[in-house]
Every structure is written in structure tokens, then in C-alpha cells.
Amino acid sequence: MRPLPTAKHPRRRRGGLLLAFVLFAGSCGVLQVDGAGPLDGEWLVERIVVDGLDLTPESGAIVLRIDTPNSTLAGRTSCQQIFGSFTIDGDGRATFTVPTPPGLECSEAAQFEQDTLIAALERSATWSGDATAAVDLVRADQSLVRITRLG
Prior knowledge:
Blueprint: H1 16-25, E1 29-30, E2 41-50, E3 53-55, E4 63-67, E5 72-76, E6 81-88, E7 94-97, H2 108-123, E8 126-129, E9 134-138, E10 144-149
Antiparallel strand pairs: 1-8, 2-3, 2-4, 2-10, 4-5, 5-6, 6-7, 8-9, 9-10
């Protein structure tokens, strides 16, 4: 796991841990990788919670594309493109790997948001919610990435 940046972020809010726990404690499914997996498609990132940080990206700032047959993840943030993959273990839990993209000149806030997203994705293992509308990628350590289906 890469450490999160320590810079202050103007949209940072504390208190998301309780909400993340409640979301995790509710009904959770396992990320599926069958041919037409429920998470295939494009998603808008609406919320990122990790290590006590609770971020709400600007509307439309972060879009992810999940391709379960190929176990890949791609996306764009307000900073740059990100690419990654995921694996599924014997218990059906997903492990995301999102390498840090090469450095580009981004604002400190955009870089912080991207780094926080990558950290939260790498901690996500299960999903809960309606795969036709909104999904929370969560883990017991109370990280969360809330995504809403586009199109």
C-alpha cells in the first residue's frame, strides 16, 4: 500500500469511518468476474473514503472503466489517466493494483485526490449496492470508493 499524502485538502471531511462501516456491514456481494460481470462499464467516482479522509471529487472529475473479463481498470482523474488490474482470490475477493502514474504537472489538490483514490481502490475487496446504478467498493478496514454507473 502506498501512503497517502499528508497535505491538507480543502474538501477533506472527517467522520466518514462510521458511514463506511455501516455501508460495509450491510449486504455485500463479491466482485464477480463472469463474462458479463456486474461491474463492467464506465463509472463516475462520487466519493472516496480512506484513513479517516472523506473526499467528494468535483462532478465528473473522475471516471473509471471496469472490464471484468480482462480484469482491468482504467480511468481518468482531474490530474491524468490511471490504469490497473485486479485479481480474484479463491474466496472471491478482489485485489486492485493501480501503479502510480508517471508524474505530470497537476495541482496539489488534483494530485492529492488521485493518490487518495488509488489508495482506496487498492484497499477495496467487496462491493455492495445496485450494479445498475450505484456501487460502493469497500473493505473491512473501512475504505470506500462510491461509483455511479454512466450511460
